[in-house]
Amino acid sequence: MYIFEGDFFKSLFDELKSKGYRIYIPDGYGFKEGEEIKEIKRSKKSAKEFFLPQNEILIKYSDWVEDVPVDNEKRAIVVSPCDARGITLLDKVFLDGLVDPYYKARRDNSLVISIACNKAGDYCFCESLGFSPYSSEGSDVFVAEVDGKYFIELSDKAKDILDIELKEADENDIEKFREKENEVKSTFKRKLNIEGLSGRLKENFESDYWKKVSINCVGCGICTFLCPTCFCFDMLDEGEKEGFRYRAWDSCQFPLYTLESSSHNPRNEKWQRLRNRFYDKFLYMLENKGEIFCVGCGRCISECPAGVDIVEVLEEVGR
After folding, report:
1. C-alpha closest to that of 111 among 151, 54, 160
2. What distance in Å separates the CA atoms of residue 44 and residue 41, rounded to the nearest whole number?
3. How far lies 289's CA from each of 94, 96, 267, in Å?
4. 23 and 113 housed in the same domain
5. Do 259 and 175 share a domain, yes or no?
6. What confidence tens digit (pLDDT) does each residue in 116-149 have?
7. Are residues 167 and 270 in the same domain?
8. Domain tally for the chain?
9. Is 114 within a domain?
10. Please, which residues have CB within 8 angstroms of residue 175's CB and are 6 or more apart in sequence?
11. What angle do CA 230, 234, 239 make, to 5 degrees?
């Protein structure tokens, strides 16, 4: 861990601009291009759109494939630690095994800059998932301001790119950093007990509880579109003899998502689709990728028009 005394972000952004990076900063709703941080407001939208855009052209065609557009723009993206963690989970989908070249190109040409949270939000529960708002996981540049000093951690990728003078943090500095981290952890209002959760889910797959939970759900898909780790997409062609093929975000909360060509739909009911989202994040991906695919950001709670609360639902499973 390093220490920087002074205006770290000015030094960092000047360095990145000189190397051709475009800098994106959260503005409360999404991200905007900028060169100055006045106040960090975590965006409603997650950073996944930089790596898996909502709509993305894969090929352009006429008589044959004419173009395979790959995005190699250099980007530096300022995010919260939970969003940085979310990117590492997307990596497990798009980079482990069969590599997605479109995702990889964006990932290779992007720097993830995460800034530690000074207070847990009303809907945050990342600590319950074994994660800390002072964690550098998934970050190329991790920054935490404590007592007027900037604490910095750099990935090997960032060390190769950046040339900023930093000094090693001593034991006293590290102690202050940990004290601040523990102070922030004490501000969490929401707690989720994940001990034995996978077992409770397996036991309650057929429970009528899921019908009760889904009564207010409107199937809008906001929870999946705002989620940093939801990655489902559809692929479509625009044009017959000439046009382009693109992929677009899809959601397991939509009725057409599982509709088969035979007209059979294995998740025809709303409650089945809502149940699938919980099982996918907290059981299926744990079995398939070894990780719970939730970072505890709370977006799906704060933005749900029906008031479905992922923490309350999981706490009630099996009771």
Report:
1. 160
2. 9
3. 12, 9, 23
4. yes
5. no
6. 998 999 999 999 999 999 999 999 999 999 988 9
7. no
8. 2
9. yes
10. none
11. 150
